[in-house]
Amino acid sequence: MSDMNDEEGTDEITTEFDYKLQVAFDYASDGDQVPAQTVKLKAPTVKHRRLVAKLKQAFLRSLPEDDDDEDDDKVATPTAAAGNTPIRPSGKMIMFTMGVSKDVDLGKVLDTAVELFLKVGRINGKEALKPVHFDRMSMTDLEGMLGEYLSRFILASSVAVSPKGSS
């Protein structure tokens, strides 16, 4: 698996990233068969607000509710051990959390992701993503792209809570 897909969070604000496909597939480009190796995904804008809101709400619904009111005044932030700088959850962790939640319809989440990626994605950084590309893409890659996209762009402002007991 590529480090490009599993990087830890940083403070650097990016407007796009390249997702390296785990399972390459061929697609037609200018009459030739070309191997799809990466998908460039741009950050969402206000234009994409409804799709972004659906994805963000799905993740937030997947989080366990904290029924203990004792620690409500303690707001913890996940931090890297060395520098106490905030970190973002991994795409794999995000997808696992949503996948095991009984409160999230993962099929609808994936459909929403495809709809968004058709607007913000480019295959091999060149051609706009099309439905035919998703027809050939592996589920591993769709879920991996969504996890990374959520981590990098959509949840960056929302994941300021760490497991109970940390500060």
Protein described:
- Helix content is 37%, strand content 18%.
- The protein is α+β, with helices and mostly antiparallel strands and 167 residues long.
- The protein has a 4-stranded antiparallel β-sheet.
- The longest helix has 16 residues.
- It is elongated and about 60 Å long.
What does this entry show, briefly?
With 167 residues, the chain is α+β, with helices and mostly antiparallel strands. The chain has helices spanning 49-62, 91-100, 106-120, 131-136, 139-154, and strands spanning 16-29, 32-42, 121-123, 127-128.
Produce the secondary structure layout.
Blueprint: E1 16-29, E2 32-42, H1 49-62, H2 91-100, H3 106-120, E3 121-123, E4 127-128, H4 131-136, H5 139-154
Antiparallel strand pairs: 1-2, 2-3, 3-4
Helix pairs in contact: 1-2, 1-3, 2-5
Element string (H = helix, E = strand):
EEHHHEEHH
Strand order of the largest sheet: 1-2-3-4
- Helical coverage, percent range: 25-40%
Shape: elongated
Characterize the biggest β-sheet: 4 strands, antiparallel
Return Rg in Å.
17 Å
Q: Mean pLDDT, as a whole number?
A: 82
Descriptive labels:
167 residues, alpha+beta, 4-stranded antiparallel sheet, 4 strands, 37% helix, elongated, disordered N terminus, disordered C terminus
